[in-house]
Amino acid sequence: MFNPYGLFAMPTLETPRLILRRIAMCDAKDIFSYSCDEEVARHVLWSAQKDISEARAYCRDLQRRYRRDEPSSWGIIEKKTGHLVGTIGYMNYSEENASVEVGYSLAHWLWNGGYMTEALARVIDYTFDAMDINRIEAQHELTNPASGRVMEKCGMRREGVLRQRLYNKGKFVDVALYAILKGDPRPLTSAKEPS
Ligand SMILES: CC(C)(COP(=O)(O)OP(=O)(O)OC[C@H]1O[C@@H](n2cnc3c(N)ncnc32)[C@H](O)[C@@H]1OP(=O)(O)O)[C@@H](O)C(=O)NCCC(=O)NCCS
Predict the structure, then answer these.
(1) Distance separating alpha carbons of residues 140 and 127, to the nearest angstrom
(2) What one-character DSSP code corresponds to residue 2?
(3) Are the C-beta atoms of residues 35 and 23 closer than 8 Å to each other?
(4) How confident is the model at residue 189 (pLDDT cuts 50, 70, 90)?
(5) Neighbouring residues of 26: CB distance < 8 A, sequence distance ≥ 6
(6) pLDDT, tens digit, for every residue of 28-55?
(7) Which of 12, 15, 30, 122 could potentially form a cystine with 84 if both were Cys, beta carbons 3.0 to 4.6 Å apart?
(8) Which residues of 104-142 are buried (b: 16+ CB within 10 A; e: fewer)?
(9) What is the sign, positive or negative, of the torsion defined by CA atoms of 117, 120, 126, 132?
C-alpha cells in the first residue's frame, strides 16, 4: 500500500511537458519498449531487457519498494502521448548524512529534447523542499557526457573523477561524480512545494 508519510512517498510531480508518477504493473509494456534498446542500457547498471517479463519484474520490485518506503523511482510520462518514456529515482540513501543519489533513463527516440533536464530539475526541487535531504549526488560514466550535461544544467557541480569506480558490462569504468547541496543555487527551479 502507498505510504503517504514515508520519506520516499514519491508523490505525483508535474513539469510543463511531463508527469512524474509512481509506476504501476500496467506500465510494463511501455518500459519494455525502450528498455530493450542496447543504446539506452549502454551506460546504466542494468542490461537491455530481452523479454517483457523483465519489465514486469522491475515493476513488481518497485511496488515492493513503494510499500516499504525504500528508495525507488518515478515513471516519466510524456503528457503529449500519455506514454511512460523513462524513469528517474533514488538510490544509495544515507540517513546519517542526509544524502541520496539520483539516476535516470529515457527512451532513445526522445533524447536531446530537454526532457531529462526538466525531470531532474523537478526532482531536485522536490527533494530539497519536501524531504530532509541536504545533498543530492549523481554519477555518470565519462563516456556518457550527455548525462553530465543534464546534471550541470540543473545546477549540480562536478566534484571529480572516480577512476574505475564501477564494473559495468565487462569492464571497469571511470565515472564523474556530481552533487548539489540544499543551499546551492538552482538555476532551473520552477514550482515550489507548499510549505
Ligand atoms: C542521459 C539522458 C538521460 C539524457 O536525457 P535527455 O532528455 O536527452 O537530456 P537533455 O535533452 O535534457 O540534455 C542533454 C544534453 O546533453 C547534450 N549532449 C548530447 N550528447 C552529447 C555528447 N555526446 N557530448 C556532450 N553533450 C551532449 C545535449 O546537447 C544536451 O545539452 P544542451 O541542452 O546544452 O544542448 C539520455 O540520453 C538517456 O536516457 N541515456 C541512456 C540512459 C543513461 O545513460 N542514463 C544516465 C546514466 S548516468
Answers:
(1) 20
(2) -
(3) no
(4) confident
(5) none
(6) 999 999 999 999 999 999 999 999 999 9
(7) 30
(8) bbbbeebeeeebbbbbbbbbbbbbbbbbebebbbbbbbe
(9) negative
CATH topology of domain 13-134: Aminopeptidase (3.40.630)
For the chain, percent of residues with pLDDT exceeding 90: 93
Cα separations in angstroms, 191 against 9, 63, 134: 18, 27, 19
Count of CA atoms in the C-beta half-sphere (13 A) of 70: 9
**Residue 130 near residue 124 (C-beta atoms within 8 A):** no
Could you tell which of 87, 150, 161 is best to mutate to test the pocket of ligand 1, judged by most ligand atoms within 8 Å of the CB?
150
Q: What is the pTM of this model?
A: 0.96
Measure 105 CA to ligand 1 centroid, in angstroms: 10
Sheet holding 13-14, edge to edge: 13-14, 18-22, 73-78, 84-94, 99-106, 135-141, 171-181, 157-168
State if residue 40 touches ligand 1 by the CB under 6 angstroms criterion: yes
C-alpha cell of 161? 573523477
- The angle that helices 145-153 and 115-130 make with each other, rounded to 10 degrees, is 50
On the question of pLDDT at 160 being above 90, the answer is: yes
